[in-house]
Amino acid sequence: MLSDVNAVKSVLNKHEWLIGSGCTVHMTPYRDILSNYKSENLGSVSMANEKRCDVLGIGDICMIFENGFKFTLKNVKHVPDLAHNLMSCSALEEEGLEGRWGKGIMNIMKGSLNVFKAERKKNLYICSVTYDIIAASVTHMNTSDLWPKRLGHISSKGLELLHKHGVLNDKINDLSFCDDCS
């Protein structure tokens, strides 16, 4: 397997993921695709070539697959010294997904729904994705700005009343209302 990895790693890019049963967790060297990132020393992981690589943090990745399906990989380890992205079959199974393969294609399913597929290249399964950076960046928005939209464009007085009665835990800051509601 190591020779197969070496054969394809020079052509893999940020948008391609190796899917394997030898990997126990999802990992990426790319910090910029992780959302909900927590920077912390999480020890190290052992590679197939017996090299150890430090884990510098953990986060989620919102992916869009070629079929248009969106899926968020949870608890992805940030391993900067990794040569490419790795997706774990066992971690996918823990998330309720299963793999079915044949004729050079691995279909990752949730029940009867085909979430995504990976193609076999040099005896390794590789899937291509794009990243939903917009969805990932929502975690950095002021949550009080989201409430007027979530509650049918409720007024600031209505939000203050909900906050006063303990319905909303968020502190209501200066809100930015849409053109129709201002």
From TrEMBL:
Classification via Pfam families: gag_pre-integrs, Pol_BBD
- Name the InterPro entries for this protein: GAG-pre-integrase_dom, PolX-like_BBD
Outline the extent of the GAG-pre-integrase domain. Answer: 136-181
Top-level division of the source organism's lineage: Eukaryota
Retrovirus-related Pol polyprotein from transposon TNT 1-94-like beta-barrel domain location is: 17-96
PANTHER family from the xrefs?
OS08G0421700 PROTEIN, PBF68 PROTEIN
Q: What is this protein called?
A: Retrovirus-related Pol polyprotein from transposon TNT 1-94
